[in-house]
Design goal:
It contains four helices and 50 strands. The chain is mainly beta. It has three domains: 293 residues; 105 residues, Immunoglobulins (Immunoglobulin-like); 109 residues, no CATH class. It has a 16-stranded parallel sheet that branches. Strands 4-7-10-13-16-20-24-27 form an eight-stranded parallel sheet. The radius of gyration is 46 Å and the shape is elongated.
Length: 605
């Protein structure tokens, strides 16, 4: 059909208007609410307006609602014409500019207080409905919810049934102080069916009471799946076997921390699954757990004490907590952009388990304390011979410290006559022991005082330990020919012994060589007799020469040998000092002049 130019001019405005209308997207309905009633009305409107909806909650505490007591305080149940629309429900918005800016993402700054008049926040569909839209909620606290309905939740209740393919993302939510008295109830319930999925992350659930799971019950039916990650569940009370967490169906649990919940049941566990064969577990910490049938896949689970400390409504991992730096950085469903408190979700290299990311551990070295000897006191060394040595060990203890902290220990002495072991300079890591410092002191003709100073440095904090050792004047060293027994190493003041190349002095009859000092031959022939005649064995075990000498020698002349009754020396001019070693009477010739004559010593051939 041909249209003339005037006709085209008249039709052009209408054509442009129609095309422009078709190109504009439908705008989402926005609600800024600051009271409980406003929130209830906004949710009711979002369920029926056939639009995507964004409800922003002012940073405040909401109480009261237009819903009758006993019913859920705030509920979203989309009608048949709204099943394919999306909903966003978030807290922390400004109040003076129609919620134009989100001034806080801290969940504790915005609260939905149900005042025990019913369930706090409920999302549901009928069995015949198929929810296709996506729901996002977060950044608020749910408190004082109540329900007596079986299989319901007092705080956060998500029940999407039928062949739904919708998705739920709920993060940064605190659920506290709820009370659920019905059978199989919980504080948080996620029951998702169809082909969609539900994801909860950065949740904290604590201080609730329920007849079923005291904390969270998460269930996925059909081909739907559910994910619970970086959630902290603690201090909840239950009457069932799952005091903290119950999981059933195709569920992935990652980076969660569940501990310190209680149950009145005879046997209970912090985490339990009665049908675990479809569960996937990644780097969770459960105080205790029970998996009937075993998990489909399980990696990195730890149990026992979580080693955490409560600060307000959050549990913060201690420096030695197994929750620190032990999660998985890419769990199913991903990580939230921040932790529960709005801080960085990953500190250091690996995400923490639980909703709160602990601050980086300060690297503080261990504290070093002295054990022995006591610093500031002196120790006198025993007498010794010139050029011999004596050693003492300085020992320390290492306690405390955090992270990768280290403490340096450096010891120095003030005398060249002493040396310190290599451990005088060492670095001690957290949990490591301190290697003792060995001080080696050499005897000198003139005694000296030795000072040793050890300094421990922990992150710039310096502690010093002072030690003193007093060395006496040393006795002259024995000559090379001085006697020494082959077995005991004791020297004897006679020149009828020879020092072997290895330093042991033995009688010449054993080494069969000329005595370099006297150049006389040695012939020590021992005879065995039972009666030594002129020797007596005293009670102290020493050999004395009473009859020959007419009395005992003084202390310096005693041979100091163990008595050997069965060993005597021929012509009684040698005494058996110990088996195989004989001392010549010349040793005591000052007192034996009337009986002892000098012998010519011949080497035994």
């Amino acid at each position: 059909m041909h249209i003339s130019t005037p006709q085209l001019r008249r039709a052009l405005p209408l054509i442009l208007a129609v095309s422009s209308l078709a190109a504009w997207p439908l705008q989402a309905a926005q609600f800024c609410v600051s009271t409980g009633t406003q929130l209830a009305n906004a949710l009711n409107s979002a369920a029926t307006n056939d639009q995507d909806d964004a409800i922003r909650i002012v940073k405040t505490t909401l109480t009261g609602t237009s819903n009758p007591a006993g019913n859920p305080r705030w509920s979203y149940r989309p009608g048949s014409n709204d099943l394919d629309n999306n909903l966003t429900l978030t807290g922390g918005w400004s109040s003076g500019d129609n919620c134009a800016s989100q001034i806080s993402t801290d969940p504790t700054s915005t609260a939905l207080d149900a005042q025990y008049n019913g369930q706090a926040l409920q999302f549901s569909t009928t069995a015949a409905d198929q929810l296709l839209g996506d729901v996002v909620v977060g950044n608020f606290t749910i408190t004082r919810g109540f329900t007596s309905v079986s299989s319901a939740a007092s705080g956060f209740d998500w029940g999407v049934n039928g062949a739904s393919s919708s998705s739920l993302l709920a993060e940064n939510v605190l659920v506290v102080a709820g009370n659920a008295t019905g059978i199989a109830t919980s504080s948080v319930r996620v029951s998702h069916a169809g082909s969609g999925h539900a994801k909860l992350r950065n949740f904290i659930v604590y201080g609730n009471i329920a007849q079923g799971s005291g904390g969270v019950a998460i269930i996925a039916n059909g081909s739907a799946y559910a994910v619970l990650s970086n959630t902290t569940i603690f201090d909840n009370q239950s009457a069932a076997s799952a005091s903290g967490l119950l999981a059933l169906g195709i569920v992935t649990l990652a980076n969660n921390a569940v501990a310190d919940n209680t149950s009145s049941a005879g046997t209970s566990f912090q985490m339990r699954s009665d049908a675990a064969t479809q569960l996937t577990l990644r780097n969770n910490h459960f105080g205790t757990k029970s998996l009937v049938g075993g998990a489909f896949s399980e990696i990195g689970t730890t149990t026992g004490d979580a080693q955490w400390t409560q600060t307000g409504s959050v549990m913060v991992p201690n420096t030695i907590s197994p929750l620190r730096d032990s999660g998985v950085n890419n769990p199913t469903g991903g990580l939230a952009s921040t932790d529960f408190q709005g801080d960085a979700r990953i500190v250091n290299v690996t995400v923490d388990r639980g909703a709160v990311e602990a601050a980086a551990i300060p690297h503080i070295g261990p504290t070093i304390s002295a054990i022995a000897p006591t610093p500031g006191t002196g120790e006198f060394m025993p007498d010794g011979l010139v050029d011999t040595t004596v050693t003492r060990s300085i020992t320390f203890a290492s306690t405390g410290g955090t992270g990768a902290g280290t403490t340096s220990l450096n010891c120095v002495d003030n005398n060249v006559a002493a040396t310190l072991s290599a451990s005088a300079n060492q670095t001690i890591a957290v949990g490591a022991a301190v290697t003792p410092v060995v001080v080696t002191m050499t005897y000198a003709p003139v005694g000296y005082n030795l000072g040793v100073t050890c300094t421990a440095n922990t992150n710039g904090n310096v502690c010093s330990f002072q030690y003193a050792f007093f060395m006496p004047n040393a006795s002259p060293a024995r000559s090379a020919g001085a006697g020494r027994s082959a077995t005991s190493g004791q020297h004897h003041p006679t020149r009828r012994f020879k020092r072997r190349p290895d330093g042991v002095a033995i009688a010449h009859v054993h080494c069969r060589r000329w005595c370099s000092e006297r150049r006389s031959e040695l012939d020590l022939r021992a005879v065995v007799r039972r009666d030594c005649g002129h020797r007596q064995c005293q009670s102290d075990g020493r050999l004395w020469w009473h009859r020959i000498a007419g009395g005992s020698f003084d202390a310096g002349d005693r041979a100091g040998a163990v008595c050997q009754r069965s060993l005597c020396c021929h012509s009684r001019r040698f005494v058996a000092v110990e088996p195989g070693l004989f001392l010549h009477h010349e040793f005591a010739r000052r007192d034996l002049r009337q009986r002892v004559r000098l012998l010519k010593i011949r080497r035994r051939r």
